[in-house]
Amino acid sequence: MADDRTAAQPQRTRPGKKQGATGELTTFWKVKEGHEKQLREALDTLDKWPIEQKAHAGLLIGTLHDRRWVLFDNDTRMMFSTNYDGEWDPYIEAFAEHNAPAFDMIFQHIEGFPAGGMRDPDIMDYLIDHQETAVEYMRFYDGTVPEIQQALTLKKDFEALLDSPEFQRAVRDPAYQELLGTPQFQALLEHAAG
Length: 194
Hints:
The protein contains 9 helices and 4 strands. By secondary structure, the protein is α+β, with helices and mostly antiparallel strands. It is elongated and about 75 Å long. The two termini are about 45 Å apart.
């Protein structure tokens, strides 16, 4: 999707603050009059999707940290907010590619949503027109989505190693006592214990 439409049109400045490799995106929308109930039902449907299905969509995008939808002003306004790694355009393009049906299901109830949905040539400008840059943005941990996923996998594998019979035998083997007594190994054990 990083395509002819971005090459053909001058690129507008992308809103949103960045901290390291991660950026924030916060948008505000006006719900079509009379669509409040349908929009809430669409968001409830999305909320009830199995976590595996949501996680799969996040993995396809590959840079999504989190997302949230908030209805307010008696369901006449909606906020969509998210944090992501990398640059704005590839992130939105990935959303359009991997989450278009979910977004179209929701945004059909929003004023001015382009007829072509998330794949409409004007979708970038439409999103920018509804995005507000955070006044303050702070992440309390470093790491991109792939780095965080790798760290979680490493933690899980290390915990499995600690619980294995082979490791339990090695702990009792005098040949490994020097390694097991190092501050670095003790720190690993403490972190694994939580």
